[in-house]
Design goal:
38% of the residues lie in helices and 18% in strands. The protein is α/β, with parallel strands linked by helices. A six-stranded parallel sheet has the order 3-2-1-4-5-6, with helices on both faces. A hairpin with a 4-residue loop joins strand 9 and strand 10.
């Protein structure tokens, strides 16, 4: 965060305020971790914060301190809307376009309160008065740490804040293995551990808590994997019937897409997941090297994200979506086979 934005944020927060904190739809560890860390920090500083998530999030994230305070908009729309309408400041975390909040978008568009964006995705929209946007940073949780530091309060970080921030950094860096992990990321993580973050326990609660259904679903996903060596690509499909058969719960497919990249010679990994309730095929894309799945998802699947991690969607059937995806690969064969 630059000095001008830090000064503007200090001024904005110089008196106690009602504050709404909003993560993106289908929030992951980074979005929830950043939201709850900021919630604890603002509460400690005398503000009245509330976290309002567009929809529910996975059980394996519900150990985070303060999770019981999170309001779920699609279950508590009336109450949540009232909080948003009376908020004096709105923080949007881990997304940079109001289209990322699902049915909350219309409510947010009508608010008069100033917005503060903290996000690390590419191509930010211009809705926020204060915009801390940097796609080079590993995670929004790392950015929330830098925000707290810019406000002169990093020494005030409590074990609860440290737990939430560490969880988000851990998940969005793939346990510190993704290219966005910098030496500064490691120094921030070390600082958080010194402040009380339970590093090994957090790793266990996020990554080592499985159900039989999730493991069987993983087996199904791996069995469905298609490898296209001529395009350095692997993709997985999961139908609604397969999800239902394995008692799918939100978050169960987290990380499945990464298995394709563990294969020698694969630079692009994709998973297609059917969601009949929403009438879409949800698409997650991962890449190695300089092949930009952000650009690929934006160009073809109404999505976006980071250079090596992005998402998109299709309203066509699974068969049509996969056929379209495969038809695109010859256009990018040279890039994929570099």
């Amino acid at each position: 965060m630059n000095s001008a934005d830090a000064g503007a944020l200090k001024t904005l927060l110089s008196t106690p305020k009602k504050i709404a904190i909003v993560p993106h739809k289908n929030p992951d560890g980074d979005a929830i971790g950043a939201s709850l860390a900021l919630y604890h920090f603002l509460k400690m500083k005398g503000h009245g914060p509330a976290v309002i998530s567009p929809n529910d999030y996975p059980e394996f994230l519900k150990w985070m301190p303060g999770t019981e305070t999170v309001m779920i908009f699609d279950k508590q729309a009336e109450e949540a809307s009232e909080i948003l309408k009376t908020a004096e400041v709105v923080f949007t975390l881990d997304f940079n376009d109001l289209t990322r909040v699902g049915q909350m978008e219309e409510t947010l568009q009508q608010l008069q309160a100033p917005f503060v964006m903290i996000d690390h995705h590419q191509s930010p929209a211009d809705y926020a008065r204060i915009r801390y946007s940097d796609p080079r940073i590993s995670s929004t949780c790392e950015m929330v740490f830098h925000t707290i530091d810019a406000l002169g309060s990093k020494d005030d970080i409590t074990p609860q804040i440290a737990d939430c921030l560490y969880a988000g950094i851990l998940t969005d860096t793939g346990s510190f293995k993704y290219a966005s992990t910098s030496s500064l990321t490691h120094r921030v993580a070390a600082f958080l551990i010194d402040k009380g973050a339970r590093s090994s326990e957090i790793h266990r609660m996020i990554f080592d808590t499985n159900t039989p259904g999730r493991l069987h679903l993983l087996g199904c996903a791996l069995n469905n994997m298609v490898i296209l060596p001529e395009y350095s690509t692997a993709y997985i499909t999961l139908s609604q019937e397969e999800l239902d058969r394995h008692q799918f719960k939100k978050g169960d497919t987290e990380g499945f897409v990464n298995y394709g990249l563990t294969l020698a010679g694969i630079r692009l990994a994709v998973i297609f997941i059917e969601n009949k309730d929403e009438g879409i095929i949800k698409i997650s894309l991962r890449s190695e090297g300089d092949f930009s799945v952000n650009e690929f998802a934006r160009a073809y699947f109404n999505g976006g994200g980071h250079t090596n991690a992005a998402g998109g969607r299709s309203t066509q059937s699974m068969e049509e979506t996969v056929s379209y995806f495969r038809s695109l690969l010859p256009k990018h064969q040279k890039e994929l086979n570099k």
